[in-house]
Each structure stands twice: as C-alpha cells, then as structure tokens.
C-alpha cells in the first residue's frame, strides 16, 4: 500500500508546490534587488549644509556641500558632518530594505537575509 501525500522517510506535503513557492520568492527578491538599485534615500547634517544620497544597495550616489560649510580652518567639522549625514542615509537605506523585505516575506523573520542586499 502506497503512502499518500508524502515522500519516503515520512516527509509530508507537496514538494512541487514548495519548490514553485521558493522559485516565485526568488524571482520577487531579484526584482526587489533591481528596484532597490534605483531607489534612493537622503540625509542631511549641519542644518542641511551637508546632504548625502544613498541607494537601497547602500551605494553613495551624491554628496552635496553648501559652500559656507567649507571652512579651511575647520576641516574636522566638515568631516564629522559628512560622516553623520552618510551614517544617517545608510540607516535610512536599511529601513527601506527591511520594509520591502517585510512586505515580500509577509513579516517572516528570516534572520540576516538583509545582508544579501
């Protein structure tokens, strides 16, 4: 008598359906990765004297400095503002990725998957 609804070894379920779901999720993740390459977030520091734009793939695509923030006698302040704006933009990019991942996975906690993006 054959077992119904399973595989040898007692694995229940429809493996073909599971594979289709995994392939669909892989396609959706690839589409999301491509979309994240085009989406950007920006952050400012120093009262908008420094602006940094980052893609969803965490690539810096633009840094804008207002002329009045460039003080040859205080390069350290400018460096600090650039670092602050960059870190904030990267944090926003993480939020954007996590939000999109949450919509794709339906809120499943998949651990460190966002490191793939």
Overview of the molecule:
- By secondary structure, the chain is an alpha+beta fold.
- The protein has helices spanning 15-38, 75-105; strands at residues 6-7, 11-12, 40-45, 50-55, 60-65.
- The strands form 2 sheets. A 3-stranded antiparallel β-sheet has the order 3-4-5.
- Strand 4 and strand 5 (60-65) form a beta hairpin.
- Helix 1 (15-38) packs antiparallel against helix 2 (75-105).
- The chain is rod-shaped and about 70 Å long.
- The mean pLDDT is 83.
List its traits.
rod-shaped; two-stranded antiparallel sheet; alpha+beta; three-stranded antiparallel beta sheet; 117 residues
Distance between the termini: 48 Å
Query: From N to C, what is the helix and strand string?
Result: EEHEEEH
Mean pLDDT: 83
Question: Helix share of residues?
Answer: 40-55%
| Adjacency order of strands in the biggest sheet | 3-4-5
* Uncertain regions spanning at least 5 consecutive residues: none
Q: Based on DSSP secondary structure assignment, what is the total number of beta strands? A: 5
Structural class: alpha+beta
- The total count of helices amounts to 2
Q: Globular, elongated, flat, extended or rod-shaped: what is the shape?
A: rod-shaped
């Amino acid at each position: 008598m054959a077992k119904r609804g399973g595989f040898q070894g007692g694995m229940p379920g429809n493996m073909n359906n599971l594979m289709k779901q995994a392939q669909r999720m892989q396609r959706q993740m690839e589409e999301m990765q491509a979309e994240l390459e085009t989406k950007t977030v920006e952050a400012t520091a120093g009262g908008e004297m420094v602006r940094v734009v980052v893609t969803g793939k965490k690539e810096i695509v633009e840094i804008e400095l207002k002329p009045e923030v460039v003080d040859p006698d205080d390069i350290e302040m400018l460096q600090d503002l650039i670092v602050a704006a960059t870190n904030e933009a990267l944090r926003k990019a993480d939020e954007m990725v996590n939000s999109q991942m949450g919509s794709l996975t339906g809120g499943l906690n998949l651990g460190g998957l966002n490191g793939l993006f």
